[in-house]
Amino acid sequence: MREYLLDKNTKKSVRWKDIFQTNLFCHGVWELKSFTFSLNIYWNAILWTLVMSRLFTCAEEIILASGSPRRRAYLEELGVFSRAVSADIEERKYPAETSVTYIERLAREKAGYVAERYPDFWIVAADTVVCLDDMVLEKPVNEDDAVDMLLRLSGREHIVRTAVCLQNQAKSVCDISLVSTGVSFWEVTEEMIRAYVRTGEPMDKAGSYGIQGKGAFMVREIHGSYSNVVGLPLYEFIGMLCRYKLLGN
């Protein structure tokens, strides 16, 4: 990828990095307060550009073991989506499980459920949770639960964790990747939170917010993968596909 592009309006060369950072500032979603954070956003923006250009093809059919529209959209934009099959498993954390062991188990069980029905296909499954101190925040059970979660997150940093499982039963492959991203909220008022919850957006999302939607207004900064917060860490997922020679162009 070229580092510089020609601006059609000014006829001057501009850098990809400058374009991405300017766009991010203009949208006002994140504060680029450190070099580390700026670099993370820069590479996430480059990856998103690759995704949107649909450069990839897939050597074999991949089935998404999820009904998540966000994960389906990512796979479609990558060019590797074939079909989605929901995994009918109970999502319940056992008392002795940590957030890591919990989501790794769920991702493995989701992939395994679909792999039993499609043993010759590649199956991808993922599970995402929001972690605040020792609490695991999943999807809210009702609007009051969503308000309570967001009040807990207000003005604090939390961790978003996603486990991705790539499985092929016929080839005895079951690969797991775990990604964590730090997300900081500014101090949001209860009135703002209730207004957001009334939109209905939080009700199918871990931690009761969507960073890719209206919930972005609460986010002060992130440290790590943006796509992980959405629900599928693309850099790690693409790496898994490359590991098994599933990607083409």
Write the SSE topology.
Blueprint: E1 4-6, E2 13-15, H1 16-27, H2 35-52, E3 57-58, E4 62-64, H3 69-78, E5 83-84, H4 99-117, E6 122-132, E7 135-137, H5 143-153, E8 157-168, E9 173-185, H6 190-198, E10 219-223, H7 226-230, H8 234-243, E11 247-248
Parallel strand pairs: 4-5, 4-6
Antiparallel strand pairs: 1-2, 3-11, 6-7, 6-8, 8-9, 9-10
Helix pairs in contact: 1-2, 5-6
Description:
The structure is a single chain. This protein is of the alpha+beta class. It has helices spanning 16-27, 35-52, 69-78, 99-117, 143-153, 190-198, 226-230, 234-243, and strands at residues 4-6, 13-15, 57-58, 62-64, 83-84, 122-132, 135-137, 157-168, 173-185, 219-223, 247-248. The two termini are 15 Å apart. Residues 1-38 have low confidence and may be disordered.
Structure in a nutshell:
The protein is an alpha+beta fold. The chain is built from eight helices and eleven strands. It is 38% helix and 24% strand.
